[in-house]
Structure formats: structure tokens, C-alpha cells
Design a protein that fits this description.
alpha/beta; binds adenosine-5'-diphosphate; globular; single chain; eight-stranded mixed β-sheet
């Protein structure tokens, strides 16, 4: 039974979509969207048909990360066609408004936008739909977790205690609504100076792994801080798409293989 003794909400799936995987974080700025995009591309390299839904309606970053600028077209009726980039199908509220326009929305509007992006987009046949969740554990997250049959959630955290405390809350939220936690990714795990090869644990290292072990959920891998990851994301050419065999893509490909 659902928490509070209510009957479980019915969760109709998205027709044609096999698995929906949420990528979440306890707080913003930890690299959730970067991870979501590169994970989606990693899944695509495994031969899967993959879509990415930007559910971070207050701070949509998928259009920028994938270099998408066009407005989505309607398919004649009510439904919209997703855009395509690097073999991924993509939909984001950021495609409907320009980047500088703030989303000043109350909860119910956010919910209806999310529902629309799931149910009124012609996703077609997909093996995996990766959902870039908004950061935190508010209304939008809870509703997504309750309304959509999620195959599981991947939690992204940096190694600092503060980020981990928030990640733990995110994890607890998914567990509360019976969504399987597929595991934790430690982003910005360490830095290797390209000139000297010296390694620096800028935010500490290993915190997420320890946390995963403590909580009994899988640890999916660590992604170092890399200039190439930052530059490629910010220029709309994600590393896993542009340099799939390169060293910066390896961590994401490993994570994709475990998801
Ligand atoms: P979030 O979705 O958690 O808010 P983003 O994915 O937008 O975070 O990342 C925040 C910033 O950090 C972006 O400029 C992004 O390019 C950068 N970033 C994310 N992960 C890495 C990484 N592993 N190495 C270097 N820069 C990163």
C-alpha cells in the first residue's frame, strides 16, 4: 500500500516507452543534467533507442547541452514531435520559451507542463526515456515519482557532505514512493591536472561510494572534474556524442552499462 494507507495511484505508462529512468539530485549544480545527457548517450551507444525529457522546468538545460534551438513542431493534432540530437529524442520546456525567460510558475502549472511533456509528445518506440528531474525533493519530484511508472532513479551527487545530505533526502523520497534507486553517481569526484598528472580531490573523494554502501544501494561510478566535460556540455556537444571512445566518456559508458 502507498504511504498513508491510500490506494496506490494508477500509473499509466507512456505508450511505446519501455523503461523510464529518472536522474535526480538533492541540490542544483552538482552535474545532474550533464550526467543525464551523457548517460542517455551512453545508453544509445549500447544500441538502445533513447529519449531525454527535461523535467527541470524551472532551469531547463537540456536544449543548451544538446545544442537544440528549434521550437518543437506539432504533429497536426494536440501532440508535439520531440526534437532529435545525436540520435536522442528530446523534449524540454526550454524549447518553448527563450533561455532568458524565467519560469514563474506555481506547482499546478509545473505539473501540467510535466504531464504534457510525457503524455502529449510523440515519443514513439523507445527502450529508455531518461528524465532529467528538477533538483530537490519538492512537489514536482514527488508528482513525477508518483504519476509515472519509473523503472528507477539514478542519484547524482558531488562528494561533499552538504551535497550528500541532500542526496540522501532524494534517495529517501524515492524509497518512500516505492521507486527503485538504481544507484548513486559521484560527479566531480577528483581532478587530474593535465600538465602535471597530479590528482586533486577538490571536493573530497569517495563520499558517495561510502554513502551508497551505508544505504545499501549500488554505486554506479565516479566522474572526474574535466575541463572537456564542462566545455563540451556548455557548447552543446556532449563528450559521449563527440568523443565516445575518449577518456572523458569512459565513466559515463560504464555507468550506462550498469543502468
Ligand atoms: P545540475 O543539472 O546539477 O544543475 P549541470 O549538469 O548543469 O548541473 O552542471 C553544472 C555545471 O557544472 C555546468 O557548467 C557543467 O558543464 C559543469 N559540470 C558538470 N559535471 C562536470 C564534470 N564532471 N566536469 C566538469 N564540469 C562539469
Amino acid at each position: 500500500p502507498a504511504p498513508g494507507g491510500r490506494p496506490p495511484a494508477t500509473k499509466p505508462g507512456i505508450p511505446g516507452v519501455d523503461r523510464i529512468v529518472a536522474v535526480a539530485s538533492g541540490k542544483g549544480g552538482v552535474g545532474k543534467s550533464t550526467t543525464a545527457v551523457n548517460l542517455a548517450l551512453g545508453l544509445s551507444l549500447l544500441g538502445l533507442r533513447v529519449g531525454i525529457l527535461d523535467a527541470d522546468v524551472y532551469g531547463p538545460s537540456i536544449p543548451r547541452l544538446l545544442g537544440l534551438k528549434d521550437k518543437p513542431k506539432t504533429s497536426g493534432g494536440r501532440t508535439m514531435l520531440p526534437l532529435e540530437a545525436y540520435g536522442l529524442k528530446a523534449m524540454s520546456m526550454g524549447l518553448m520559451v527563450d533561455e532568458e525567460t524565467p519560469m514563474i510558475w506555481r506547482g499546478p502549472m509545473v505539473m501540467s507542463a510535466l504531464t504534457q511533456m510525457m503524455r502529449e509528445v510523440e515519443w514513439g518506440e523507445l527502450d529508455v526515456l531518461v528524465v532529467d528531474m528538477p533538483p530537490g525533493t519538492g512537489d514536482a519530484q514527488l508528482t513525477m515519482a508518483q504519476q509515472v511508472p519509473l523503472a528507477g532513479a539514478v542519484i547524482v551527487s558531488t562528494p561533499q557532505d552538504l551535497a550528500l545530505i541532500d542526496a540522501r533526502k532524494g534517495l529517501a523520497m524515492f524509497q518512500k514512493v516505492d521507486v527503485r534507486v538504481l544507484g548513486i553517481v559521484e560527479n566531480m569526484s577528483y581532478f587530474v591536472a593535465p600538465d602535471t598528472g597530479n590528482r586533486y580531490d577538490i571536493f573530497g573523494h569517495g563520499g558517495a561510494k561510502a554513502e551508497a554502501e551505508r544505504l545499501g544501494v549500488p554505486f554506479l561510478g565516479e566522474v572526474p572534474i574535466e575541463m572537456a566535460i564542462r566545455e563540451s556540455s556548455d557548447s552543446g556537444r556532449p563528450v559521449v556524442a563527440t568523443d565516445p571512445e575518449g577518456p572523458h566518456s569512459a565513466a559515463y559508458r560504464d555507468i550506462a552499462a550498469k543502468v
